[in-house]
Each structure stands twice: as C-alpha cells, then as structure tokens.
Amino acid sequence: MDIDLTLSADTIRLFAQKARSVNDALEDGFDDSNDGEIEFDEDTLTDTHAHDGLAEEENDDMTEEELRELIADLNVDEAAELVAVVWVGRGDYEAEDFPQAVEDAKDRANASTAKYLMGMPLLADHIEAGLDALEL
C-alpha cells in the first residue's frame, strides 16, 4: 500500500515509544499495593500546619509531558494522520480507507488531539497496529 504521509513512519513510531513509556510508568506506579497510603509518626504530630515531615517527591520522568507537547505541536494535517493511524490500528477503519480516516479526523477535530490520544490506554498498541496495517 502506497501512502504519502506528512509525518514520517519513524516519527509515528516515536509517538508509540513515548506512549508505551507513559503506560509503563503508570503501571510501575501501581506495583506496590501500599501506594497512596500515608504513615504518620504520632510522636511528631502537632496542631500546627507544617510540612516538615512530608517530603515532596519530584518526578524526573517527563515522558507524559513530552508526549503531550509533541502531539500538541503537530499541525492539522499531521495530527489528523496520527489519529487516522490510531483508528486503523484500533480497527475503526481498514488500511485502504486511510485517506477517508484522515479526512474524518480533520472533520472531527474539535478538541485537543493530545488529550484525546492520551486518554487511550492502548495508544502505543493502536499506533503500532496501524503502522503494521498500513505497511509502514
């Protein structure tokens, strides 16, 4: 199948890799069954409002933010192509219907593409399946 994309297949693969990293990071965060539990040392509790005993955790993993920004930086044609690849990978469209999927993605674009795509738990799988179906 001969498809002329504004985005390169390698760029689309980068989106899949970033999406997989985001998903893996989320899954790693739930490995410990004690997540979300807070233990207090009753000997140091006071009536004052202070955060001395609480350490703020900084997250050095910028993968989700990077992916969101990469998607947000796409122009209309690029965003529509990425969404169309996802739709083909998800089974909403057949590979031969890709041009129609791109047009439909442009017509339906009324909100943040990044928010829409980042809301898909299987985004990386859909991207990879779409690339495979399109033979890219």
| Strand composition percent | under 5%
Alpha-beta content class: mainly alpha
- N to C succession of SSEs: HHHHHH
Question: What general form does the structure show?
Answer: globular
Number of domains: 1
Organism: Roseibium suaedae
Protein name: DUF3775 domain-containing protein
Pfam family, one: DUF3775
Structure write-up:
- There is one protein chain.
- With 136 residues, the chain is mostly helical.
- The chain has one domain (9-29, 52-133).
- Residues 47-60 have low confidence and may be disordered.
- The protein contains six helices and no strands.
- It has helices at 9-29, 63-72, 76-90, 98-108, 113-118, 123-133.
- Helix content is 54%, strand content 0%.
- It comes from Roseibium suaedae.
- Residues 27-63 are annotated as: Disordered.
- Residues 27-45 have a biased composition (Acidic residues).
- InterPro entries: DUF3775.
- Pfam families: DUF3775.
